[in-house]
Amino acid sequence: MTTIRMISWNVNGLRAVKRKDALGILFDDRPDIFCIQETKINDSTLPDDLRHIDGYHTHFSFAEKKGYSGVATYSKREPKSVEHGFGIEQFDSEGRILMSDFGSFVLFNIYFPNGKASAERLQYKMDFYDAFLETAEKVKSQGKNIVVCGDVNTAHKEIDLARPKENSKRSGFLPEEREWIDKFLDHGYLDTFRVFNQEPGHYSWWDMVTRARERDVGWRIDYFYINEGLKDNLKDAFILKEVMGSDHCPIGIDLQIPD
User: Fold this and answer.
1) Which sign does the torsion angle of CA 54, 248, 227, 113 carry?
2) 15, 70 in Cβ contact below 8 A?
3) pLDDT tens by residue, 44-83
């Protein structure tokens, strides 16, 4: 067995975080798999030095809308196959999905929608959640292990945000959003961070406008999930709070896989 490190990070603009010289976690630490959400690039604006990185296979999903959404997966091992969507145009066109089959597991790198803008976007978010779960269950039914990472845009429990009461009617902590995570976990998935840590005060996103990071008034909305069958392979899960460059910080897991 080999232990691999996977990192996930909503960078809030891939070119912007590179300009801040904040990609040391990729270029210096060199995890085995590095998943990025909210790249905010398309094929014509992706710099060559981010498209081609020595020692990595790279895959990108771009939104049709310029400067919006987007995900990227960098991996030392070449996946057997990569899919760019659920097969549903209204979701796939926003460039939020990369599913990479590494043989011993299928990795879902997902930038889940934000539901704050309107009632319509909240419904879009909930429909996206359901489409994702249906797709994950279909893959799992084929006997494959599943790893899911990304910005889920919902804090699950009260311990997952600094001010739960004040945000109880705000998208990102609404009852129906939190109940969906309950439903997802009930289908046989684990929140990897909570396997090791049940304490409050651990966050992955802070509001930039209110300078919330300086006061550590945050939300844990970025996750790594695995199916329960991989629990014994999970060796660590962590939040890299000290890494700056975005309104999110990276998160990660160490997972044992067959050689």
Assistant:
1) negative
2) no
3) 999 999 999 999 999 999 999 999 999 999 999 999 999 9
Q: Which of 11, 4, 55 lies closest to 31 in space, CA to CA?
A: 4
User: Which stretch of DSSP H or E encloses residue 25?
Assistant: helix 24-27
- List strand residue ranges (DSSP E) for the chain, in order: 2-10, 33-37, 57-61, 71-75, 81-83, 97-101, 106-111, 146-151, 189-191, 205-206, 218-219, 222-227, 234-239, 251-257
Residue 117's pLDDT is: 84
Whether 100 contacts 107, CB under 8 Å:
yes
Q: Which residues, 6 or more positions from 191, have their beta carbon under 8 angstroms from its beta carbon? A: 156, 185, 223, 225
* 191 given a catalytic annotation: no
The architecture of the domain spanning 2-257 is 4-Layer Sandwich (3.60)
DSSP state of 22: -
Structure token digits, residue 64:
């049709």
Domain ranges of the chain: 2-257
In degrees rounded to 5, what are phi and psi of residue 116? -80, -25
Q: What is the pTM of this model?
A: 0.97
Catalytic residue among 32, 92, 151, 222: 151
Q: For 101-128, how does the pLDDT look when each residue is reduced to its tens digit (9 = 90+)?
A: 999 999 999 999 999 989 999 999 999 9
Residues with Cβ within 8 Å of 37's Cβ and at least 6 positions away in sequence, in order, are 8, 9, 10, 11, 70, 71, 96, 109, 110, 111, 150, 151
| Phi/psi at 115 (5° precision) | -105, 15
Which tens digits make up the pLDDT trace of 186-226?
A: 999 999 999 999 999 999 999 999 999 999 999 999 999 99
